[in-house]
Every structure is written in structure tokens, then in C-alpha cells.
Amino acid sequence: GIQVEQSPPDLILQEGANSTLRCNFSDSVNNLQWFHQNPWGQLINLFYIPSGTKQNGRLSATTVATERYSLLYISSSQTTDSGVYFCAVRGNQGGKLIFGQGTELSVKP
Amino acid sequence: DSGVTQTPKHLITATGQRVTLRCSPRSGDLSVYWYQQSLDQGLQFLIQYYNGEERAKGNILERFSAQQFPDLHSELNLSSLELGDSALYFCASSVGQGARGANVLTFGAGSRLTVL
């Protein structure tokens, strides 16, 4: 099945810093979503981005489908950005949404 | 509020017992998905239903079963519980078919199961 790898596994930032999270996938996809799991366990949908670029406030994401990777940019990070960021994909053959192992982000005041 | 409602939020039970987790999808969504998140396994897909029918199956144990009812809510039944079943169980929903974006998943807040 399709493989999803996220990097880095952990990231510690000072408040106000910028960061880039990466998601590599092993096959063509028709769905790619970025999620934020906050410290209370809630999974918040950030972006649906199987291709192209989107922005939402301080967050933006880019997926280069032909090269099988996606990037999540967080600018001017805040302590509330802390948590785990997951990339999840569904292959063109359909089936389940497969999650990467996540990037755990900690933003220090 | 994501629009996907899961109950109960927390559940503590003993080994060997049986529990039922409930999920109400977002209004208009026909597909329901169940995921299990444990510390060592990450987020694992269990099963998907679309408009009452099983659509896809993942790493769901035989002790677990699920169904989607005519009103589209879904239940996940976990029986003969073991310590290793302790996890966060998520339900997600999507429109399911049709236009681009129909398979965007929206997750509920999860049900945290602790087996003692």
C-alpha cells in the first residue's frame, strides 16, 4: 500500500519563529489532508490539498503531486500551534485515508 | 465543533467487557469512518461505511464490529476487551461521492477508551 513519511518527527520552536513540515508519499494520490491534533486530542482539518497551494492565515500548504510531497508552512508560530501535525493521503486506487506518523511541534513562549 | 458527534467522550472499563461507541456524522455526509489511535500504532483505519453499507475494511479485529444505521449514525462495538484496546477511537465523516472534495474527512472529538 501507499507509504506516508513525515519529517521532522519532532520540532521545538520559539514563539514567533517559522517552520516547514514535510510529507512524502509513495504513490499518486487523489486526497491529501493536513490535520492538527491539539493537546486535548482533537483532530482539526487544516487543508484538503491533493495538489497546488492554499493559505489560511498564518498557515499555508503546497502539494507537488508529480514529485509526491507536500509541505505545511507555519509562520509567526504561537503557543497554540503546539500539538501533532498529521499528513494523510488516499491513493488514486481509492481506499482508506492513510496517516503519517506525525510531526510533534512544541512552541515555547 | 466539527459537526461529527461522538459519544461517550471517555470510557473506563475492565478486561473482558464489551462497549459501544457511537458516532453521528455531519449533516449531509453519507460516509462514516472509524480510526483507532494508540500510542504505539499511530492512527489506524478500522472500517468505512457508505450509506449503510460496508465500503472498506482495515485492521479491524474480529472482536470489533461496526454498523451504520438508516439514519446514518454509526456504532463501533468492541468486545472481549483487552488492555491493548485502550486507545482513542475516532469517527470521521465525508460526503462520500461526487464532486472533488467529496472525500474530505472531518473528524469527531474522539472517544477515549481505557481498559483496566
Layout of SSEs?
The complex is a heterodimer of chains A (109) and B (116).
Chain A: E1 4-7, E2 10-14, E3 19-25, E4 29-37, E5 43-48, E6 52-56, E7 59-64, E8 69-74, E9 83-91, E10 98-99, E11 103-108
Parallel strand pairs in A: 2-11
Antiparallel strand pairs in A: 1-3, 3-8, 4-5, 4-9, 6-7, 7-8, 9-10, 9-11
Chain B: E1 5-7, E2 10-13, E3 19-24, E4 31-38, E5 42-50, E6 53-57, E7 64-68, E8 74-78, E9 87-94, E10 106-107, E11 111-115
Parallel strand pairs in B: 2-11
Antiparallel strand pairs in B: 1-3, 3-8, 4-5, 4-9, 5-6, 7-8, 9-10, 9-11
Overview of this structure, please?
The complex is a heterodimer of chains A (109) and B (116). Chain A has 109 residues and is mostly beta strands. Chain A has no helices and eleven strands. Chain A has strands at 4-7, 10-14, 19-25, 29-37, 43-48, 52-56, 59-64, 69-74, 83-91, 98-99, 103-108. In chain A, strands 2, 4, 5, 9, 10 and 11 form a six-stranded mixed β-sheet that branches. In chain A, strands 1-3-8-7-6 form a five-stranded antiparallel β-sheet, with no helix packed on it. Chain A is globular. The relative contact order of chain A is 0.34. Chain B has 116 residues and is an all-beta fold. Chain B is built from no helices and eleven strands. Chain B has strands at 5-7, 10-13, 19-24, 31-38, 42-50, 53-57, 64-68, 74-78, 87-94, 106-107, 111-115. In chain B, strands 2, 4, 5, 6, 9, 10 and 11 form a seven-stranded mixed β-sheet that branches. In chain B, strands 1-3-8-7 form a four-stranded antiparallel β-sheet, with no helix packed on it. In chain B, strand 7 and strand 8 form a beta hairpin. Chain B starts with a strand and ends with a strand. The mean pLDDT of chain B is 93. The chains are: A mainly beta (109), B mainly beta (116). The interface between A and B is medium-sized, with 20 and 20 residues.
